[in-house]
Design a protein that fits this description.
Helix 5 packs across helix 9 and helix 8 packs antiparallel against helix 9. The chain is an alpha/beta fold. It has an eight-stranded mixed beta sheet, with helices on both faces. The chain has two domains: about 210 residues, Spore Coat Polysaccharide Biosynthesis Protein SpsA, Chain A (Alpha-Beta Complex); about 120 residues.
Length: about 325
């Protein structure tokens, strides 16, 4: 078994068929890969739809569990996986047809721990063909260790950005944190640091479907408060990782640390943007600011640069970094809620 695709599923009856169809529309033998659909206690018809696929395709397995969240669904898939390589696919997204063959050939040829791919954000569910599958050049793939990769490249937090070797992943001991909405940011940075052989390929592969009620797009107050709390946890978890990396003897460790610091500060920035947008109280924000001061993440000094440089970011950052202006902005935001 070469590949296990893990598809956590919760209340996506509109999208799960499209997701699974994209996994079936591939150029490798069904003997070479398995699809694990982890039903995380869905209350709609997601499990029934996935079950129909499992009944008609021997390499699709439906695993049912009580609702424990995306992290635990992924962890369940990780424990059950039989493939040499693992890929995590969100059940409302999908992938380009006939792309597994190339990806597996690169993983095998270069004996990679981890391989990143290219994604597009879309509101369409029918972009089936890869734009560059027939023209992409892979003869001179740049192989590097994970610390060097982080030092030299912007990387994507999401677990769907990369394929990883199962043995390598299990040997790291990493699992997705329980009860976390933004569960893969710290997981990904830790996994990359551990990689000895990794690369990325600009293959048009992943379709990141933008739906209004996804985890990152819901706007109800309780969800936003939880999301802000998870951003805060990620900031502190990045701090722990940075401290652990300071002792590493690696020629690019300083550049690696710098990029992870940028990512840490980005989470603080986007956390405070959400606080303004959704009118989080001044007292709650002040408590977060005081905590971030203790780890030198406030004021946010290491955010704007090569990785994050939009005009809107430059406009908002001086407001966020000035406590009086930020307090006033929170009051104005509350008026318009």
């Amino acid at each position: 078994m070469l590949l296990t695709i893990i598809v956590p599923t919760y209340n996506v009856e509109e999208f799960i068929a499209n997701c699974l169809d994209s996994l079936l529309d591939q150029d490798i033998s069904t003997n070479d890969y398995e699809i694990l659909v982890i039903n995380d206690g869905a209350t709609d018809n997601s499990a029934q739809i996935a079950g129909t696929y499992a009944d008609t395709h021997e390499h699709i397995r439906l695993i049912n569990q009580a609702n424990m969240g995306l992290s635990e669904a992924r962890n369940t898939g990780l424990r059950q996986a039989k493939g040499k390589y693992i890929y995590f696919l969100d059940s409302d997204d999908y992938i380009a047809k006939n792309t597994f063959g190339l990806i597996l050939s690169l993983l095998e040829k270069y004996q990679l721990d981890l391989l990143g791919v290219k994604e597009i954000e879309t509101r369409r569910l029918d972009i089936k063909k890869s734009a560059n599958l027939d023209s992409i050049k892979t003869d001179h793939l740049k192989i590097t260790d994970g610390i060097s990769f982080i030092a030299d490249n912007y990387y994507i937090n999401n677990a769907w950005w990369y394929f990883t070797r199962t043995k390598f992943l299990r040997e790291t001991g990493l699992t997705f944190p329980k009860d976390r909405l933004v569960e893969d940011a710290n997981f990904t940075s830790k996994l990359l640091v551990a990689a000895q052989r990794m690369a990325s390929v600009p293959l048009d592969f992943y379709r990141y479907y933008q739906r209004p009620n996804s985890i990152m797009h819901k706007t109800n107050k309780a969800h936003i408060r939880r999301l802000i709390g998870d951003y805060e946890k990620n900031v502190y978890e990045f701090e722990s990782q940075l401290k652990s990396l300071e002792a590493y003897d690696h020629p690019k460790i300083k550049a690696c640390l710098k990029r992870i610091e940028v990512r840490q500060h980005s989470f603080a920035f986007f956390l405070f943007v959400k606080c303004m947008r959704f009118s989080i109280s001044k007292d709650e924000v002040s408590t977060m600011i005081e905590g971030f001061k203790t780890i030198e993440v406030y004021p946010i000094q290491k955010f704007i640069g090569e990785d994050y440089n939009k005009f809107s970011y430059r406009l908002l950052l001086p407001i966020i970094n000035n406590e009086k202006l930020f307090s006033a902005a929170l009051k104005v935001s509350a008026i318009f809620q």
